[in-house]
């Protein structure tokens, strides 16, 4: 029973892509206005404690294993302007689901 529980918890988590944008004050047709946020650090916290940190790799891709529950998510270091969405994720036991994050650069 304990081995099964350990297997289920190990499979739990989220993965996806982190993007940032807008990347310029004016978005133009045919030119992307967002880009992968390679190197961005996502911090996952539960009950006020940091549960995990993960750095987005090439193409902004990330993967993190987490136990089941709700997690607050932020970017480290914190953004001076702009925001991260979503700010919370739910992890279900035995599932590794895709959650894409967007970092708003605040450029307008």
Give a quick set of tags describing it.
single chain; 108 residues; mainly beta; Immunoglobulin-like; 4-stranded antiparallel β-sheet; 10 strands
Question: How would you describe what is shown here?
Answer:
By secondary structure, this protein is mostly beta strands. It is built from one helix and ten strands; from the N terminus they run αββββββββββ. Strand 3 (41-46) and strand 4 (49-55) form a beta hairpin. The termini are far apart.
H and E string: HEEEEEEEEEE
Structural class: mainly beta
Helix content: under 10%
What separation lies between the terminal Cα atoms? Answer: 54 Å
General shape? elongated
**Unreliable residue runs:** none
Using DSSP, what is the number of strands? Answer: 10
Q: CATH-wise, what's the superfamily? A: Immunoglobulins
Name of the CATH class: Mainly Beta
What portion of residues belong to β-strands? over 45%
Taken together, the total number of domains comes to 1
Radius of gyration: 16 Å
Mean pLDDT: 89
H/I helix tally:
1
By CATH, the topology is: Immunoglobulin-like
How does the major sheet shape up?
6 strands, mixed
CATH architecture: Sandwich
How is this structure best summarized?
The chain has 108 residues and is mainly beta. It has one helix at 2-11; strands at 13-21, 35-36, 41-46, 49-55, 61-65, 69-76, 84-85, 88-91, 96-98, 101-104. The protein has a single domain, classed as Immunoglobulins (Immunoglobulin-like, Sandwich).
Mind sketching the topology for me?
Elements: H1 2-11, E1 13-21, E2 35-36, E3 41-46, E4 49-55, E5 61-65, E6 69-76, E7 84-85, E8 88-91, E9 96-98, E10 101-104
Parallel strand pairs: 1-9, 1-10
Antiparallel strand pairs: 1-2, 1-5, 3-4, 3-6, 6-8, 7-10
